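fyi for ur records
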Amino acid sequence: MNFKHLYYFWMVARIGGVIRASHRLHVTPQTLSGQIKLLEDRMGCTLYERDGRNIRLTEAGKIAASYADEIFTKGLELQEAVRESEAARRAAMTASIKRETLHLPVRCDAM
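which gave:
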């Protein structure tokens, strides 16, 4: 499964329309529809039906959107955890450097 296709579908499902989602994703509506069509072909089912300018998720689309919510929410949690870990590592390194700087010996011949 291509996660970019799933992400595009997820955004269309969340926003409620291909055109609005395409603006948000900075792609053309045709590109977005084509990528979702590839996802539908891969999954073997239709995920949404057009309802004027809006979309209506099929039962399969509701299931896919629910899983996509979990997948991309976990992805955001992962990014945050890594950022926090990196920030903690940097803070520890900075604190260590400050402690080491305070304990540097003073050279008498430098005075």
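The beta strands are 48-51, 54-57. thats all i got for now
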